Automatic annotation (TrEMBL):
<dbReference type="InterPro" id="IPR036250">
    <property type="entry name" value="AcylCo_DH-like_C"/>
</dbReference>
<dbReference type="GO" id="GO:0055088">
    <property type="term" value="P:lipid homeostasis"/>
</dbReference>
<dbReference type="GO" id="GO:0033540">
    <property type="term" value="P:fatty acid beta-oxidation using acyl-CoA oxidase"/>
</dbReference>
<dbReference type="InterPro" id="IPR012258">
    <property type="entry name" value="Acyl-CoA_oxidase"/>
</dbReference>
<dbReference type="GO" id="GO:0071949">
    <property type="term" value="F:FAD binding"/>
</dbReference>
<dbReference type="InterPro" id="IPR046373">
    <property type="entry name" value="Acyl-CoA_Oxase/DH_mid-dom_sf"/>
</dbReference>
<dbReference type="InterPro" id="IPR009100">
    <property type="entry name" value="AcylCoA_DH/oxidase_NM_dom_sf"/>
</dbReference>
<dbReference type="GO" id="GO:0005777">
    <property type="term" value="C:peroxisome"/>
</dbReference>
<dbReference type="GO" id="GO:0003997">
    <property type="term" value="F:acyl-CoA oxidase activity"/>
</dbReference>
<protein>
    <submittedName>
        <fullName>Acyl-coenzyme A oxidase</fullName>
    </submittedName>
</protein>
<dbReference type="GO" id="GO:0005504">
    <property type="term" value="F:fatty acid binding"/>
</dbReference>
Length: 179
């Protein structure tokens, strides 16, 4: 589901996991580097269908990409072409960093929650309305409808920050590929 179309004239390259076939025999699922598109069109045998936009912003052109008899040069293979003793263990070793990358992308949003909450809190303290007495100013933070979302954002920021620190500590050591 990553961005794979030649959207905005940007060439796309991807690491693709596919079954390596050598003389009609499977050598297991291996990672390959594949050029998906140039700035104008998809490469031969590669097709990509953009998924419907989601509500809100559209930072990426998420798509479903399919391959039909794509021939690759031998240097596209990123690992040994030999058949592994344990295909499952080798595959898990190859994809171990995917979870770390996914988590890293998600963790970046935590700072946006914290900054947005801080901006809302400062604005709510500074923005005033006329008090019921008709003479004095009253900050809008005094309303529960303003307080609740700010407190929720603050709590979410604190909890997610603690989770991020815990999760980073749980990530595998890159020096130990089988961890």
């Amino acid at each position: 589901m990553p961005p794979t179309t030649p959207y905005c004239g940007i060439p796309r390259v991807a690491i693709v996991f596919a079954r390596l076939m050598v003389q009609g025999k499977s050598q297991g699922v291996k990672p390959f580097i594949v050029f998906l598109s140039d700035a104008d069109a998809m490469r031969p045998g590669v097709s990509s269908r953009i998924l419907p936009t989601r509500p809100g912003t559209k930072p990426l052109d998420h798509a479903i990409t399919t391959f039909n008899r794509v021939q690759l040069p031998s240097n596209a293979l990123l690992v040994s072409p030999t058949k592994p003793e344990n295909e499952r263990a080798e595959f898990l070793c190859h994809i171990r960093r995917v979870a770390v990358g996914t988590l890293s992308l998600s963790i970046m949003g935590i700072s946006a929650i914290r900054v947005g909450t801080r901006i809302a809190a400062l604005y709510s303290e500074r923005r005033t309305i006329t008090a019921p007495d008709g003479h004095s100013a009253m900050p809008i933070i005094s309303f529960s409808t303003q307080q609740r979302p700010i407190v929720e954002g603050w709590v979410q920021g604190k909890v997610l920050t603690a989770f991020a620190h815990w999760a980073v500590g749980m990530c595998p050591d890159p020096a130990r590929p089988t961890q």
